[in-house]
Sequence to fold (396 residues):
Amino acid sequence: MTSDPAEVTVGIHDLTFATTSLCLTHEELARHTGAPVAKYHHGIGQTAMSIPTEDEDIVTLAADAAAPIIERHGSDRVRTLLFATETGIDQSKAAGVYVHSLLGLPPHIRVVELKQACYGGTAALQLACALVRSDPTQKVLVLASDIARYDLDSPGEATQGAAAAAMLITAAPGLVELSTPCGLFTRDIMDFWRPNYRTTALVDGKASLDAYLDAVDGTWLDYRAHGGLPFEKLRTVCYHQPFTRIAHKAHRRLERAAGHTSTARAIDAAIAPTTTYNQVIGNSYTASMYLALAALLDSDTDLGGDDIGFFSYGSGSVAEFFTGTVNPTYRAHLRVDAHQAHIARRTAISYAAYRELHTRALPTDGTPHEVARRTDGRHRLAGIRDHQRQYRAVHP
Ligand code: HMG
Fold:
């Protein structure tokens, strides 16, 4: 295999995700808030959101997402594990080290955690691609795992969710070959943030929407200035989807920046295949755009050989636009049934049960604490002892 970075094709060889065992429907939420359910279903484009059990966290979700990738491909040439999250569980130790242990990965692997709000998953992906371009024999496991939480009774409450995406980045990728031109856009803004002492995010909803849409313009102009494809070459775009209706607004904005206009119906048709998973899972922060890609690849749309765009946005804010080409034989690598089963298995809970879970907190003073088994997943948080999280594989 060549090691000239210009000649190596690099990208996503495998992609899968995991979400929680519970969900809250927006119908149930509307019964509590009194909002017309149409506001949720159509105004923000959400019908349900994933809610974690007490024994599910970013580590268990990421381990659940990554396990099928390791089972299919082995870990022989995995030299790096990058874990992106903005809902970290430790200020020092990378959450990926727990996943490394739960999956029984070999010791000769570097494990690092990355953060920049929802953009962290894309930072990890680009870093992974650079590593593989420098040594195409290596594989990189990229994990993006988050639990999105806002205050009860706040406008953000309807845009919570949780999931982890796992991707194997390799040379000659089976799913999507990523191109090198990218558009970047960073601006210091307080649209959404979570100080260390808070378990829920603070957000200026309106400012966050404006900042997100401005970043669509900013990244697109930079992408084009760096030799990126013209808009008409793109089959569709996977947007970061804190709620799926934003993808419609973003696509309209992108079209305008590219000097195009089309009808609302045409925009919906272009975007719809990317929204099906996020519509029922909700915001999964770093994982969100990769769930949009999973939904697109899993859809009936035939994408072989098509160029697709990616718009990644992380509040605060850092954004990136890049593109990839779908492998003509991508369908052989998909996991459609597993993805759909994973979503279908969730138990819908009452608003009261959701509220009780939302207010529950793990001890922060080192008191020994056991967590009962509730998850349907393959890994669980069993408790906390001496300030240390105890994780277990779940044996059926
Ligand atoms: P809100 O005040 O509850 O909702 O906040 P609204 O009044 O703005 O209504 C929402 C939409 O529903 C509007 O549509 C209404 O017209 C429509 P729009 O005018 O925008 O097209 N609507 C209806 N539609 C049909 N039938 C009805 C009806 N009623 C109203 N009866 C907001 C909504 C998204 C601001 C809030 O949920 C929030 O603050 N969410 C959190 C922030 C967020 O998601 N921001 C997105 C951009 S920032 C980002 O993506 C980064 C992030 O993921 C974090 C990170 O990077 O780490 C958040």
Notes: Residues 36, 38-39, 42-44, 86, 117-118, 155-156, 158-159, 191-192, 203, 205, 208-209, 212, 240, 242-243, 246, 283, 285, 313-315 surround 3-hydroxy-3-methylglutaryl-coenzyme A (CB under 6 Å).
